[in-house]
User: Fold this.
Amino acid sequence: MSFTSIVRVKVPATTANIGSGFDCLGAALTLYNQFRFSVSGQESVQIVATGAEADRVSTDASNLVYQSFIKLYEHLDKTPPSVQIEITMNVPLARGLGSSATAIVGGLVGANALAGSPLSQEDIMQLAIAIEGHPDNVVPALVGGCCLAASGIDRDWEICDIPWDHSIIPIVAIPNFELSTAEARRVLPAGYSRADSIFNASHLGLLLRGLETGRANWLKAALQDRIHQPYRQSLIRGYEEVRSAALTAGAHGIVISGAGPTLLALASPASAEAVKASMHIAWTGQGVEVQVKLLQIDLQGAIVEQSS
Assistant:
């Protein structure tokens, strides 16, 4: 088998719905899935997955990486090449860390590179949002950093990069059970009161300033939410115990990452290790196996390398 072109894409995990930033605020994290695309003479797609939970990844044409790969060629009105895709998994599935966003971004970026890079990052971003249905995971996965997304006037979306102070350490606690996005959305109410809407609007404004400045008192207040977390907490076994332990250990606050069940704590460098340990102890004390990772904000987004 001979390959005429090889593209490698590295895509970061993301955390979205950060506190009061429901469906509009997300950040890229230093945890990655990697994708290798090889153009071959084979007639059908070949997909191989390795790493964490690789046995659960679809290896036929229904694979989300491949579906996104095909979407880009459809957008270009071109026939996609036969391709072999190798996936190296590090971002767990259905845990609220944007695994589907890495697949979408990886497939689009890989296809664009193999097609000669005809689309800009902006073009790819709009395609990614259309596939995912909302911007808060796919945008930071593509461009890196912390991003606020809002619907535009002259175009579909406006993306604003949000400064994230270096003194704010993201800590993720990933339990060994899943929570589907569909299930997490089913528990949300059909509407919200004026008071709750004002509460979240004011706290989102404070959160953006808290992330920029690192001011602990602003972050502690700003991470409160009335739109999604009060309704989803009951779906996450041990939530209150883990939250209480993290706050006691010095965390600024704790929120549900994405749709959950992963929990995200924000802490200062001085308290980060204590917060990490406390979250692990609290969740294992509830009979839940958990991985707790002290991460950083990824500032590069998707990285592509091409060779022949």
